Every structure is written in C-alpha cells, then in structure tokens.
C-alpha cells in the first residue's frame, strides 16, 4: 500500500538489475476471495553485479505464505514496498507462495474480478499485486502459467503464449497450462478465467505461417466482434507490408472486459481490452466508435514489436513504446483511410490527430503537470500515461520520419530491431538507430539537439516574418523560436524544428521556388530550424507570396505566422495543403472568437461566411473535410489562447458563433441535409461516415435555430434511424439545442438501449455534457439504477464528462462545481486511485481562471489535498497543481 510519504523516483537513479530470472512457473488456484499463487523462479546473478547484492522483490496487498530457496526456508527482510533477500548464491531456485483477494481489488490493477470473471492488469506495476517479483520492465523472463479454476463458472482459462495442455481435474476444476516462448517483463503478463465465447479467424501471413486470431467476449456480444476482427486482420497485414514485421505467435487473442481503467493492454499474445474498443455493430456503435476500435486494435497489435519484442529499460522510457506505437497506429489509420478515401482521407485523419494533440497535450504542456516526453521524475508512474508521453511522443517520432523520409524511417526501424530485439532499451537507443541508419541526414547532423524533444517540456512557439524582394526574386523567411519555462525547467534551448512549407500567390496559385543551392525549384520545401532565430532565403520567387508554413503540422509547435485575414482567406480557398486550408479556417474563427470573448462583441462578417460557404459548396472537397472546416475550435482550445480564462463566457461566445453559423448558412445546411441523403445500408467506411458526419452537422445547426420542424425531424431520427451514428447525433442535436423534445427523446433512447452498457454510457455522457447542466442533474444521473462509481467507463461518462468536458457548466461563480469535483475525487480515490487521479486533473489550469473562479477553487483544492487518506496518485496531481 502506498503511503503519504511515497518517494519520488528519479530517472538518473537507474541501476541495472542485479539478478536475472530466466524462467518462472506460476501456478494459480483461482478463487474470488482468496487466490493462491505459487511462483517458482530460476534466478541468476548478473555478470558484473556484486556478490553481496541483495535481490529486491516488490509486493503490494498480498500475503506471503512461504518462501523456499533451493527447497529450504530462507530468511528475508521486509522493505517499504516488498522484501529483500541477502547473502545469495550465484544461481538458485526460489519458490514463493502468496495469496491475494481478487474480489476485494477495486483498483483494477493486479488480479481482479469483473462481474464473475477473473482478469489481470499488470502495466505498469500491477504484477507486484499478484506475487513478489522484481516488478520492473528490464527483468525479462520466460513464463509458464498453470491455471486452475471451477470449470462450471470459468470454462475459459487463458494466459500468454501457447496452450500446452488443458484437462478437467477430479474436484470439478479445470486446469490449463500456457507457455510463452518469448521472454517478457512482468507488466506484459496476463490471465483470464471467465465464461466467454469467441470469434475465430485463421490467417496465413505473407511469410506463409498460419495463425489463429480470436476475439473473446461475453455470450450475447458475439454479433459485435466483426469489426474488431477485421481491424486485427488489417493490422497484421499492415505491419508486414509497411515494416516487414510479422506476427511471432501461433495464436493471438483479444479479450473484452467491461471494468477496465484504460483503453486496452498489449499483454503478449493476450490483449485485454475495454469493451468500448472491441464491441461494435451498426445498431450500437457510432462511426467514431468504429474508428477508435480500428486504431486501438492496431495500437495494441503493433506493440507486439514496439513494446513487447523491444521494451523499455525503465518507466521513464515509456514513450519509447507509446510514442512510437501511437505514431504507428496513426500511420495505419491514415493508410487504411487513404485506401478507401484517397489522399484527402489521409489529411482528414491527420487533422483529427492534431486536433486531439492541441485539445489535450498543449494544455498539459502549459500547465502544472508539464513534463518532458521522457519524464525526469514521478511519484506514481500511472500518472504519466499522458498525452505528452503518447501524443507528443508520436509527434517526435513523426518528425524523425519527416527528417529522414519514409524509406529512411523504415531503414531506421530495421536497424533498431537488428540491434535491440529481445532487449529493454531507452529513447536514446531509438534515436541513435534512426540517426545511424540515415548518415548525413538532418537527423544525423543534429541528433544531439534533436534529443531535446525528449528532454524539454513545453510547446515551442515559432514566429515567422517574411520579406519579398522583387528585384532579386527572393523571399526571406525569418523564423524565431522560444519556449516558456515549465515546472523544474526555467531555461529552454532551441530545438530542431522541421518546417514543411510552400508559397501561395495572391491569386491562389502555388508558387514554385528554390530553397537552397542543392535543391531544385518546386512547390514545397522542408526547412530545418535549429537556431533561436534563423533566416531562410528562398530563390526564384516570381511574386509576393503568402507563406503556407508547417504544412501537415510538421512539428508540434505553436506558430504565429503573422498573416492577416486576407491572406488566410486565400489560404482557406486555395492552399494545396489540406491541413493548412483547415488551419486557415481555424485561425479565421479564432480571430473572431477571441475579441468577442474579451470584449463581448461578436462579429461574423460576410467575407468569412462567404469563405465557409464556398467550402461547403465545393464539389471537389470531401464531406469529412468540410465537416472539419465548419467545426469551430473547441472551448478548451479557445481558453488556451487567452491569458485569463472565463469558461462560461467562452461557452456563451462559442454558442453565439455556432448560432450565427446556423442562421447565416441556413440555406446551405438545408441543402446539405437533402443532398447528402444516406446510401442504402450502413458501412463505417470513410466516404459514408463523412457524408453522415456532415449531414448530421447540418442537422445540429438547423436544430440550434429552434425551429420546431427541424427538431421534429431530429426526433423522428431518434425513433427510426437505422444506425447509432444517425440516432445518437440526432439525440445530441436535440439535447444541444435544449429542444423541448429532448427529454422525450432521451427517455425513448434509454428504454431502447437499457441493456447495452456502452450505449448507456453515451446516454449518460450526453446529459452530463449538456449545455447548462446543473449539478443536481448530475447527481440525479448518479442516482440512476445503472450508475456505478466502480465501473470506470460509467464513472467517467458522468463525472469526468461534467468536470472535464463541460467547462461552461462546471465552472460556476458559486464554486459548487468544484465542491462536487472534490467530493467525487475523494469517493473515487477510496476505490480506484488511477481513475481518481485522472479526474483530479480537471483542475490543472485553475491558476489561469478569471475571478471569481480561481478564488473559489483554491480553498476546495487545498482542503482536498490535505485529506489524510488520499492515494499517492491523487496526491501527486494535487501537489503539482497547488505548487
Ligand atoms: N500500454 C497500454 C496502456 C495501459 C496502461 C496502463 C494500464 O493499466 C493501468 C492499462 C493500459 C496502451 O498503451 O495501450
Ligand atoms: Zn500503448
């Protein structure tokens, strides 16, 4: 159990393990109240370790029953978080018997129960809640696992690797023996004992090997497994094709569980998933759900190489596997989208990813939890599964690909695997492989400086200034970079910033230019900024251009491009880079929203409206792209642009702008509704989803007008839509416009889907995120018979949605939102610290709040932080927020 004085762990304290455990056999006698675990390990002192070195074993919330060394009882010492063995021989067999209580494990870390079934979650430090073990990722062992459990309740017994044998025992139990041929760290261990059914698929890899793919779910959910299986098959094929990485196991299993702290987990050969990222059919899942399932299935599968075959030396290196694997899943989804929707589908996916980065990672990097992609210290590692480690980490990998090219990146991956397969390594090792595989590249030349992306927190700000000289036909672009201090890092050094760019003429045509002596003349260049200030001279420029900078968002920075409205309108209409077209629209929206938030006077001018109209009417543009252009920057993103945040005011301005777009573009919205009528049948593919998305955006705007006819249409769709996307979007349009019919529609929806927990999560979240939601309404949702604080999905659907996803309603002058938040953090913390600590982050940005919000938040936060029973996880978050 962690205590108040949980220590700070520092990256520079790393010491290699003194002992290796080459082989372990784990025997489980599974019982909900008291599970017995016998662990038999083959231990060997590492070459170079001192003969006096102790063996440190972690253990948490388990009871030690016996410990034998080479068959004899051995004396051990208790430590803070486990036991220590001294005076050890060079090699020995260690047998430890422990007991734990899966039923009482509400943290969902270690061995726990979901309903009447057993599951495990061991990343990052859950294995120590199962048995005593050096619970660190650089100790890799071969696991054999014996499972025994009552056959009538747990007919399916699964663990990592290959099933060696299975037999009924005389006492009514079933015994299964699993063997994983690959050495792995303890965080990748998993077991499942449950009553489940599975969808199976046999595949043959490119290399000719046969594999069995399985997706396990509860009875009754089998009709929701097709998309996960399709996504898994696509993942296997993609990794072979793009990176030459094949599945290395005969069998690959996915198991869905409804009580899960995170999205999914890449345990070797036995991925365990939150049901949210497995189950889908057209009646219960939206297009967005289908998309998430594809990317999460891909993500976990890709970890098999980037994470499992090569893992992290220590948890500070988490982004080694996470940043790289997010990059891989993003590329996978882009490639799949492009297969069905062409190149513009790739751009749509990129824009969505950048939107997420800006919505969640930029605020983190500007707040009290700002940390480098490779953090320097932590109290609870679970708090560092962050957008910085994941999403910014992926951007760092993407920049490497931008600097060395796609083929160069593939070469770097090959070198990485040939050097490190089977090892536990660092972010530096990955960067070194990429740079070594691409000698002479900008990444190689600036490798040391590029490493700052792992070491420095904060989002760099770029400022651009251009000067055209007609006489010499040159355009001189001066770029400066700076980064604000972040906690613990006062001074920042200049980083390597790849800036992909082009030039656009005032007539909208792309202008060719030459970026350097060794490059040819063309429409695009990659500039590599390495200094605090640097000028780039572009030659053979025929006219005064508008620079289109940071195309495709080539670096995770904030760019002040210095452009005015007129330039942006040209970029929105003509830029050949779809990302920057979208970006121009976002900036045009912001330049109208921000003054309105500050001065209260919203002006939605004709030039802006005409530009949006032109996008909506352009037959060459994808509906999905149009939807993105017509979607305003989020309230959170607007808040980040302001020195002081008044969330209700931002919300009102945002709503006013949406209403203005609804009114001013009414004819276009109506036209879209009629012309985008659905194709027959439902497919979640890019084209169909894009049409639905834009059509439903039209309906949302039309409902905002308060027109009974359109609200009636939306109600009708809640009744008779043939898929969840259309049904739910219509329901959301009613709730979002505070339509009179909303209540009846909500009731109808709940009656229809009462037995579909994932659909009910949406229903709860829609109400918790509704404009003007009162705290009493949130409490009423929590009194609903189907609400439970113990189920993370359900708790998040109500509490996190309100506190983190509904700023206009959560931040109240009377501070009642904050009191509610504190109450829920405390209640959750007693059950599940990981989930509580995430909710605690709702107040990360409290210091930026305008009066009276910050003033009413502070005492509530201080009182919560002083609560003596708080977990180390939650304490760490609050401590940083209040520091
Ligand atoms: N490695 C997983 C994320 C994960 C982390 C911790 C968990 O339990 C607390 C569960 C999953 C991934 O990146 O998908
Ligand atoms: Zn991951």
TrEMBL record:
Ranges for domain Peptidase M1 membrane alanine aminopeptidase: 228-438
EC top class named in words: hydrolase
UniProt domain Aminopeptidase N-like N-terminal: residue ranges: 105-188
Catalytic activity: Release of an N-terminal amino acid, Xaa-|-Yaa- from a peptide, amide or arylamide. Xaa is preferably Ala, but may be most amino acids including Pro (slow action). When a terminal hydrophobic residue is followed by a prolyl residue, the two may be released as an intact Xaa-Pro dipeptide
GO MF entry, a single one: alanyl aminopeptidase activity
Family per record: Belongs to the peptidase M1 family.
Listed name of the protein: Aminopeptidase N
Source organism of this protein record: Thiomonas delicata
Lineage: Bacteria, Pseudomonadati, Pseudomonadota, Betaproteobacteria, Burkholderiales
Gene encoding the protein: pepN
């Amino acid at each position: 159990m962690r205590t108040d004085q949980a220590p700070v762990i520092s990256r520079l304290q790393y010491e290699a393990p003194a002992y290796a455990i080459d082989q372990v056999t784990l025997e489980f006698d599974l019982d909900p109240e008291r599970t017995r675990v016998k662990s038999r390990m083959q231990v060997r002192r590492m070459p170079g370790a001192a003969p006096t070195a102790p063996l440190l074993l972690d253990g948490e919330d388990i009871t030690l029953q016996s410990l034998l060394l080479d068959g004899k009882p051995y004396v051990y010492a208790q430590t803070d978080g486990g036991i220590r063995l001294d005076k050890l021989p060079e090699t020995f067999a260690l047998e430890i018997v422990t007991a734990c209580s899966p039923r009482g494990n509400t943290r969902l870390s270690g061995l726990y129960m979901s309903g009447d079934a057993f599951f495990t979650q061991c990343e990052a430090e859950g294995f120590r809640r199962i048995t005593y073990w050096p619970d660190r990722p650089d100790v890799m062992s071969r696991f054999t696992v014996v499972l025994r459990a009552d056959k009538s309740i747990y007919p399916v017994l699964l663990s990592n690797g290959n099933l060696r044998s299975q037999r009924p025992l005389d006492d009514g139990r079933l015994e299964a023996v699993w063997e994983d041929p690959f050495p792995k760290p303890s965080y990748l261990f998993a077991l499942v004992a449950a009553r489940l059914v599975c969808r199976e698929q046999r595949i043959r890899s490119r290399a000719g090997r046969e594999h069995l793919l399985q997706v396990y779910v509860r009875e009754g959910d089998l009709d929701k497994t097709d998309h996960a299986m399709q996504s898994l098959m696509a993942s296997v094929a993609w990794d072979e094709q793009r990176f030459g990485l094949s599945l290395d196991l005969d069998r690959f299993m996915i198991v869905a569980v409804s009580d899960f702290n995170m999205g999914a987990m890449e345990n070797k050969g036995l991925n365990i998933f939150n049901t949210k990222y497995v189950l889908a059919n057209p009646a219960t899942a939206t297009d967005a759900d289908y998309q998430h399932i594809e990317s999460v299935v891909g993500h976990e599968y890709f970890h098999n190489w980037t994470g499992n075959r090569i893992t992290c030396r220590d948890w500070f290196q988490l982004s080694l596997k996470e940043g790289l694997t997010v990059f891989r899943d993003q590329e996978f989804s882009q490639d799949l989208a492009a297969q069905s929707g062409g190149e513009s589908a790739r751009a749509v996916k990129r824009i969505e990813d950048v939107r997420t980065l800006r919505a969640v990672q930029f605020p983190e990097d500007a707040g009290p939890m700002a940390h480098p992609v490779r953090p320097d210290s932590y109290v609870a590692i679970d708090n560092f599964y962050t957008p910085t480690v994941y999403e910014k980490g992926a951007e760092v990998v993407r920049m490497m690909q931008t600097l060395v090219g796609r083929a160069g990146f593939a070469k770097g991956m090959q070198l990485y695997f040939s050097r490190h397969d089977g090892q536990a390594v660092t972010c530096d090792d990955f960067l070194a492989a990429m740079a070594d595989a691409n000698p002479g590249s900008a990444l190689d030349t600036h490798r040391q400086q590029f490493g700052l992306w792992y070491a420095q927190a904060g989002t760099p700000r770029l400022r651009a200034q251009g000067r055209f000289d007609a006489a010499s036909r040159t355009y001189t672009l001066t770029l400066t970079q700076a980064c604000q201090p972040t906690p613990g890092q006062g001074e920042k050094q200049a980083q390597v910033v790849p800036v992909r760019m082009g030039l656009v003429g005032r007539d909208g045509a792309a202008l060719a230019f030459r970026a350097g002596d060794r490059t040819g003349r063309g429409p695009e260049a990659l500039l590599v900024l390495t200094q605090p200030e640097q000028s780039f001279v572009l030659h053979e420029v025929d006219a005064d251009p508008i620079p289109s900078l940071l195309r495709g968002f080539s670096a995770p920075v904030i760019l002040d491009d210095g452009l005015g409205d007129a330039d942006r309108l040209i970029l929105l209409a003509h830029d050949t880079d779809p990302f920057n077209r979208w970006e121009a629209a976002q900036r045009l929206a912001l330049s109208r929203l921000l003054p309105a938030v500050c001065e209260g006077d919203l002006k939605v001018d004709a030039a802006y409206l005409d530009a949006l109209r032109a996008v909506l009417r352009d037959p060459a543009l994808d509906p999905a792209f149009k939807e993105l252009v017509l979607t305003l920057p989020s309230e959170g993103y607007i808040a980040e642009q302001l020195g002081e945040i008044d969330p209700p005011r931002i919300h009102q301005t945002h709503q006013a702008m949406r209403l203005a777009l609804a009114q001013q573009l009414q004819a276009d919205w109506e036209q879209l509704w009629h012309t985008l009528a659905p194709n027959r049948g439902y497919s979640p593919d890019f084209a169909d989803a894009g049409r639905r998305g834009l059509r439903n955006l039209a309906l949302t705007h039309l409902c905002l007008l308060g027109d009974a006819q359109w609200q009636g249409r939306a109600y009708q769709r809640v009744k008779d839509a043939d898929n969840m996307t259309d049904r739910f979007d219509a329901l959301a349009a009613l709730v979002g416009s505070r339509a009179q019919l909303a209540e009846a529609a909500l009731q109808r929806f709940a009656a229809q889907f009462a037995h579909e927990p994932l659909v009910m999560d949406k229903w709860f979240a829609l109400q918790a995120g509704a404009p003007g939601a009162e705290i009493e309404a949130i409490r009423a949702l929590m009194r609903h018979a189907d609400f439970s604080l113990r189920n993370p999905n359900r708790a998040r659907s109500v509490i996190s949605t309100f506190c983190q996803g509904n700023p206009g309603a959560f931040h109240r002058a009377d501070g009642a939102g904050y009191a509610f938040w504190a109450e829920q953090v405390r209640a959750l913390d007693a059950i599940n610290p990981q989930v509580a600590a995430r909710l605690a982050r709702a107040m990360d940005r409290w210091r930026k709040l305008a009066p009276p919000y910050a003033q009413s938040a502070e005492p509530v936060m201080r009182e919560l932080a002083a609560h003596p029973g708080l977990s180390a996880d939650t304490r760490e978050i609050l401590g940083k927020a209040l520091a």
